[in-house]
Design a protein that fits this description.
CATH architecture: 2-Layer Sandwich
Number of helices: 5
Order of helices and strands: EHHEEHHEEEEEEEEH
Helix content: 25-40%
Structural class: alpha+beta
CATH class: Alpha Beta
Largest sheet: 9 strands, antiparallel
CATH superfamily: START domain
Amino acid sequence: MLLFPPALASTLQKQTAEAFSLYTSRVERELDKRASGELPFLRIEESPDSLSRIKRGETVIKPLNKEDKTPDGIIHDWVGSIFIPQSNLDEIIGILTDYESHKLVFDEVIDSRLIRKSGNQLESYLRFKKKEILTVVTDTWYRAEHRYYPGKKAHLISRSTRINEVENFGQKDERLKPEGEDNGFLWRMNTYWSLLETGDGIILECRSVSLSRDIPFGLNLIIKPIVSRMPRKSLEKTLETLKELTIDD
């Protein structure tokens, strides 16, 4: 298991957190425009070729923050799209908000539970274990809400409220590091699900926006590609699992 040396641990800076808040505010304004019809509801509707690919069973994933300039951090922004045949909005929203089952369904989730539900508002806890040379375990808390729109459309928006990196995972001295004072693999994570029900299934689009530490120059060539791949890989795994789950059903 490869981790940063203690001397290279990082602290979330105020300007970094503010940059993430500003970025996600822009993402959510765009989402509102898509819900109102000012823009196509799904990004993939703007790309006929990509739309054809997902209808053939492919998973299409693209980066959206290609020229990141976040101070003392990295904002990872990926959007992934799939087509789930013979499905409907309620079924997919039900799977995505069944937090008690996430630990049984998704490989990276090793513990999960629903904390509170009130109408379309939900609070949840998930423990993630991500491994790609680096192994990272995080305890995460979220607030989510789902919204239905005319034309068989829906959004599910999930925003992290607290993230703690787990130190010495699985050992007797396991503990949570103070929030924002850790190795900086995951400081923030918002997930924006867009669902469009068609006559033959669901087009599902997930935009994952997360915040991690910047990488010191000396480790840039070794560590940065790994840290940058983690969000994309997680998104791909999640979408592939959803396809397999619904096909099996």
